Amino acid sequence: MIDVLAITETKLDASFPIHQFHLDGFKVIRSDFTKFSGGVMAIIRDDMAHSRKPEYEYSCPNVQCMVIEIIIRKEKWFFVIFYKSPKVKDMDFINCMQQTYNAVSPVAKETIFIGDFNINMLTDNCIDHDICDIYGVSNLINGPTCFKAADGTLLDPVIVSNRARFSTSFNVTCGFSDFHNIVGCITKLSIDRQKPKQILYRSYRKFNEELFKCDIEYIPLMYVAYLMMWMISIGFFQSYFLIY
Questions:
Q1: SS3 state of residue 153
Q2: Is residue 193 domain-resident?
Q3: For residues 158 and 79, what is the distance between their CA atoms, to the nearest angstrom?
Q4: What is the pLDDT of residues 19-51, one digit of tens each?
């Protein structure tokens, strides 16, 4: 059960309509770059109060940043999603992270940095030294997250402002990415569960043909037929296929 899902390097542009990514019970927020590189997306439960905060988003060329404020138990949690191109210098990206954290920390109860940083935190310690040590934040991910090379690299951290408020983290192969694992964390803070949805279905084991025919009779097929006749009369189908 996912409350917030962040996707990086979406490779989308305006030619991909937003309804193409519709999910029942969730709100999709995206920030595109080009259809060949970059881009970030957030998928959030629609019953959780949230909003994007562009005034806190600091980025540099080839870095995408999205800041989402989510109200959890009357607390303001800020989710900061980054995608950094390998072309960007590490210190330029560090400066971007510092500006973002300085902006959100006075108003946030908790802050989570997540995304594809394209900095190997198993060997390069610039994020540890310039972000984690200075600001007192912690990375919950310890092992490799990207396996483009045989040994693997840690490019996808989950950096949180208060480690004690998280029960566990995960770093697993998802099967949908080219080289990257899916990473995430679970909070100790209880979040209201979504209201259950009732789904009615017919059991074939106890199938009753007469009852089925009776149910079919109540479907307003006549309205569908009238609509199709009207569409044919105005030449809708011919126009549609010509446009397509």
A1: strand
A2: no
A3: 10
A4: 899 998 999 999 999 999 999 999 999 999 999
